[in-house]
Amino acid sequence: METKRIVFVGVGGQGNLLATRLLGEACLAAGIPAVVSEIHGMAQRGGVVESALVMGARSPIVSRGEADVLIGFEPLETLRALNKCNKNTVVITNIHPLPPFTVATGQGVYPDIDKAIDLMRDNVCTLITLDGDKLAARAGNPLSLNMVMLGALMGSKVIPLDEDILKETIAKTTKQAFLESNLKAFDLGVAASSVG
C-alpha cells in the first residue's frame, strides 16, 4: 500500500493523542499496517502536543516536508507545524484559537488568523478550515474536538480507511455517556470537510 504520513498537532487537553490512537486502532482493524508516535511537550501546561501516524510503513517518523496530511487542532500550532508539509500536503485545521499562556499574560501577541490561513493556503495543496470547537459544542460536548477533527479527516477522503471502521472503533472505546455526542461530532466534522 502507498505510505500515508499524518501529523496531528494541538495543545494539551485537546485530545489529539486519543485521536491518533483511535485512528491507529481503526487502521489495524481494517488490516492496514500503521505505526504511531507522539511528542507530549508541555501538555499539562497547555503546551504543544504532536503525534503522528504512518500508514503502510514501519517507521513512525515524519520528517520535515514529509507529511501527506497535517491535522491542526489549534491554528497557531498548525502554522508552527507547516514545516512538516510540502506542496502536496492536505492541511485540515481548526480555526478556533486557544492562545498560549504568554498571550494570556500579555507577554506575547497571537498572530492574525486570516494571515496565518493565507500562509497555509499558499504552501500546501489543499487547506480545509473549520471551527472545530463550535462543531463540538453543537454536538453537545465541547470536549469532542478530537472527534470533529477525525471526522474532518474522513470527510476529506485523503486516506484509504473506511469511515465505518473508524466509527466502530470510536464506539468500542467511548464511554456510553459520551458516545452519542462523539459520533455526532464525528459526523459534523465529516460534513464540514467533505471535498469533491
Q: What percent strand?
A: 15-25%
Biggest sheet statistics: 6 strands, mixed
Q: List the helices and strands in order.
A: EHEEEHEHHEHHHH
Second rung of CATH, namely the architecture: 3-Layer(aba) Sandwich
Distance between the termini: 23 Å
Derived structural class:
alpha/beta
**Spatial ordering of strands, largest sheet:** 2-3-1-4-5-6
Descriptive report:
This protein has 196 residues and is of the alpha/beta class. It has one domain: Pyruvate-ferredoxin Oxidoreductase, domain 3, CATH 3.40.920.10. 42% of the residues lie in helices and 18% in strands. It has eight helices and six strands, in the order E-H-E-E-E-H-E-H-H-E-H-H-H-H. Strands 2-3-1-4-5-6 form a six-stranded mixed β-sheet, with helices on both faces. Helix 1 packs across helix 6 (145-156) and helix 1 (16-29) crosses helix 7. The two termini are 23 Å apart.
Brief rundown of the structure:
By secondary structure, the chain is α/β, with parallel strands linked by helices. Helix content is 42%, strand content 18%.
State the main characteristics.
196 residues; alpha/beta; Pyruvate-ferredoxin Oxidoreductase, domain 3; six-stranded mixed sheet; 6 strands; 42% helix
Question: What is the topological layout?
Answer:
Layout: E1 4-11, H1 16-29, E2 34-39, E3 48-55, E4 69-72, H2 75-80, E5 90-94, H3 101-104, H4 113-123, E6 126-130, H5 132-138, H6 145-156, H7 163-173, H8 176-193
